[in-house]
Structure formats: structure tokens, C-alpha cells
Amino acid sequence: MSELFRIENLHARPVTDDGESADDILRGLSLKVAAGEVHAIMGPNGCGKSTLASTLLASPEYEVTSGDIFLNDENITDWTTDVRAKAGMFLAFQYPQEIAGVSVIQFLRQALSARKGIDLSVLELRLSAMDWMKRLGMDSSFVDRYLNEGFSGGEKKRNEIMQMALLEPEFAVLDETDSGLDIDALRIVAKGIREVRVDRPNLGILLITHYQRLLDELQPDHVHIMIDGRIVKSGGMELAAELEKNGYEAYKA
């Protein structure tokens, strides 16, 4: 398979308000994802997983101090969040934010317009959304609610999978998509991810998670262990099983 996404020796740190230099949280992380592959990153709290997700989508809260990020062989390290999104990157947040006064359907229409440069009618978009709401076990009135306002944890995560389906990104970062989900909601979300992959077999996915249960549902191609801001070991599902049994202590220097 052709290479879709690459990180080379990435170092990144928080941006501080007082002008003081913070220490790097990402400390030389490298990774390659081919088209159609699913990679999972696992690691203990504080190892830099969410920093990685934020840095990949150019959050202003973090700055790259060295290293490079590539999408389809283009160096996107200096690209802003909106430019990366238009180029085909997607981030599902660990804690999706509420946006009062903006309905799900309005949000999707604006996002699709920016991503694809087309102005879909609300009716066209509603029909596409209805199909995915059915697949994800969501009520048909869902798209008329304000974005994430009063949503349950499962509704927030299913909404993000619907966004990923409709926006048709090339590379998706799913930051602890299993966080706060009971087993039934997890299975629905995992089924949605699998269905998106059926529709878009070249989609590359980077899963960031603490737990094996999502990996059991999705069976990633590669599993990586992240400690202190870098990947210390890579393997397959057997590595996730090893972690479940022994924990992270064996990988800490």
C-alpha cells in the first residue's frame, strides 16, 4: 500500500502564556501509516497521547519544536488547522465541545462546504445524514439539536463518527473515542468506524486509546506503545494483549 501519512522525529511542547519555555512533551516520535491501515497508540496517562492528537491538527496550544509531519508526501508541519482539514485530515475529540445555537446539520453543512468546496442543500445533506444516523442508531431528529448540547457521551462519539463519514477525510485521528462509553455504545461506535472503512477502504486511521476493548472491535493493523513522548515498541494485536496482561512498567526506562 502507498504511504499516506508520516511523522518524522516529532518534538512538540505546550505554548505558555508567560513566555517561558515549556519542556517538550513529544520527544522524537516517528510513525508511518499506509493508505487503508489502522494504527493504534496506547500508553499510560501523561505519555503525550492527547498532545500528539492536538499537534497533528495544529492546535494553537502546542508548538512543534522540531521534526516534520507529512500527508500524501506533502510537508504539512506549518499548515494551520483549517488547511489540514481541507486537505483531508480529521480529528475526533476525546471531549467534544458544545456549540450553543449551532445545529448539527448547520455545522455539517459549513464543514462540508469548507472541506469539499461544494454548497450542499440542507435537504441533500439531511438525506445523507439520515442514512448514517440509522447505521449509528441515532434518532432522525438528532441533526436538528445544537451541537453536543445535552448529548450523552455515546451521542457525542456517534456524532463524530457521522462527521467522519460525511466529510470523507483521507486520514482520521480518533483521540480516545472509547472514553466514557459503555460496552453497548462502544460496539455501536466501532461498527460505525468499520462501516466508514468499508465505504472508504483507503482511509487511514490513528486510534489513541487506553484500553484493549476498542482494539478487539476494530483489529488494528499495527499497535504502538508510547512512553514519555515517543514510541518505544510496535507490533500487532499480540502487543495489546501483552499490555493487558503486564501493563506499561516493562517499557518504562
From TrEMBL:
NCBIfam families referenced in this protein's UniProt entry, alphabetically: sufC (TIGR01978)
The entry's keywords: ATP-binding, Nucleotide-binding
Database matches in SMART domains: AAA
GO molecular function: ATP binding; ATP hydrolysis activity
Domain ABC transporter residue range list: 5-253
UniProt name for this protein: Unannotated protein
Signal peptide segment: none
InterPro entries attached to this UniProt entry: AAA+_ATPase (IPR003593), ABC_transporter-like_ATP-bd (IPR003439), FeS-cluster_ATPase_SufC (IPR010230), P-loop_NTPase (IPR027417)
Keyword DNA-binding among UniProt keywords: no
Annotated Pfam families: ABC_tran
